[in-house]
Structure formats: C-alpha cells, structure tokens
Amino acid sequence: INIAVIAGVIAAMAFVLVGLLLLMLHYMYRHKGTYHTNE
C-alpha cells in the first residue's frame, strides 16, 4: 500500500466532510435569516 494513496484518500475525505459541514452551516444560517425576515 502506497502512503501517497492513503494520504490522498484521507485528504479527499476530509475535504468532502469540511465541504458538507460548511454547506450545512451556510444553509442553516441562511434559512434562519430568511425565517426571521419573513416573520
């Protein structure tokens, strides 16, 4: 097993997890803001 492959897989997984987390936070924050403005 190549170390570069393992590092690449870990980096890809971390990148995807961070991206999903940022998208969820952005969606929640935006949804909360629109909800407050609507009310």
UniProtKB/TrEMBL annotation:
Keywords: Membrane, Transmembrane, Transmembrane helix. PANTHER family: GLYCOPHORIN-C (PTHR47614). It comes from Ovis aries (Sheep). This is Glycophorin C. The chain crosses the membrane at residues 6-29. One of its GO terms (cellular component) is cortical cytoskeleton.
